Amino acid sequence: MTHAPIDAEHVSRRWLGKATRDLPENEAEVVRSAADRRPVSEDVNETFDDHLTFGERLADRVASFGGSWPFIIAFGLFLAAWTGLNLLLRKEAFDPYPFIFLNLVLSMLAAVQAPVIMMSQNRQAARDRLDAGNDYQVNLKAEIEIMALLDKVEHLTARQEEQTELIRRLLAERER
Questions:
Q1: For the chain, which ranges sit under pLDDT 50?
Q2: What is the dihedral of CA 55, 60, 62, 65, to 10 degrees?
Q3: pLDDT at residue number 14
Q4: How far is CA 103 from the centre of its chain?
């Protein structure tokens, strides 16, 4: 069953108490979608992922791998191999104890990895903001739809009470 669209201005004034032009754009879009009876929800992650650059996707992968158990285990094995090999080679070691070169490598890795992880976190925060905005729109539309349904139920209840009263009067007149 399809429903005819209703006036967005009426929806806006009735349920939000403001003219459509006085609403923020996201709320005005919700009012228009409620008036046209079309969905407002969307998969913001899909939209967001479609606009990522190669560098952003690479940063996300690096951050994902850098915070995983396989990375921690592989890096632990690398450190154990580095120190073990240099301790075994003693005088011929390429990085003798106290492993100054290893410290340089670790510092360089941290200097590169930290900003990459921060870029990925900033992008995740932007994605979360989009998701929260979409959730707000969906919730607002649900509230408008619920208020409209309650209004219809109240209207139907009032009509039913009128009809019940009319039936009572007709039965009372018939009994006389």
A1: none
A2: -160
A3: 83
A4: 40
- Give the span between the Cα atoms of 117 and 59, in whole angstroms: 7
Amino acid 17: pLDDT: 87
CB neighbour list of residue 173: distance below 8 Å, 6 or more residues apart: none
Amino acid identity, residue 68? S
Neighbours of 47 (CB within 10 A): 12
The label of the residue with tokens 């940063």 reads 59
78 CA to centre of own chain: 38
Burial 93-109 (b: 16+ CB within 10 A, else e): eebeeebeebeeeeeee
Instruction: Return the closest-CA partner of residue 148 out of 12, 46, 2.
Output: 12
